[in-house]
Amino acid sequence: MTGIASKAQLRMSFLRYALFVVPLVLLLGILSGRASNSGYGNAWFAALAKPEAMPPGWVFGAAWTFLYILLGLALAMILHARGARGRERAIGLFVVQLLINYAWSPAFFAYHKVDLALGMIAAMIVLTLAAALLFARIRKAAALLLLPYLAWLCFAAYLTLGIATLNPGAETLVPQAGSADISL
Questions:
Q1: Which residue among 89, 122, 131, 177 has the highest number of C-beta atoms inside a 10 angstrom radius?
Q2: Distance (Å, rounded) from C-alpha 17 to C-alpha 72?
Q3: What are the per-10-residue average pLDDT scores of the chain (184 residues)?
Q4: pTM
Q5: Residue 102's closest CA among 80, 123, 129?
Q6: Domain count of the chain?
């Protein structure tokens, strides 16, 4: 028996990575958002003034689902490229930016740290760009899968900057609670 795998064996190897990594990346993203009460259902977020380009709430759920699937596929491609030069460094950068991504929702929605969230997005953009360049040396397709994510991060940075600009002191904003008084 030789040490060379057939094309079918290589496809199955990639499929095993993808079947584990894609749902994991997606699940962790969903958990991050749910745990921090992200979205329009968050009373603090609902009370903020938002930029005109702010899309409706359903867009965020659809976009992040799609993007997490792409991120999972890109990571699976690089994990599958065992023995590739620079693979560990590429995976390391990718994982660091992904951890920052998962921490963004709690920072913004749970702790109301708009400036910190903006800095986190800037870090994600830089780290993802660096990871994409390293991915391109290993698998060009994996790098291409990161491009929609980079575009969305830039849009998210624009929205977060808009929120920071429109809501100075957003961290201290307390949404108006409903009144229990009965008026006659």
A1: 131
A2: 9
A3: 58 81 96 93 93 95 97 96 92 98 97 96 98 97 98 98 95 66 51
A4: 0.87
A5: 123
A6: 1
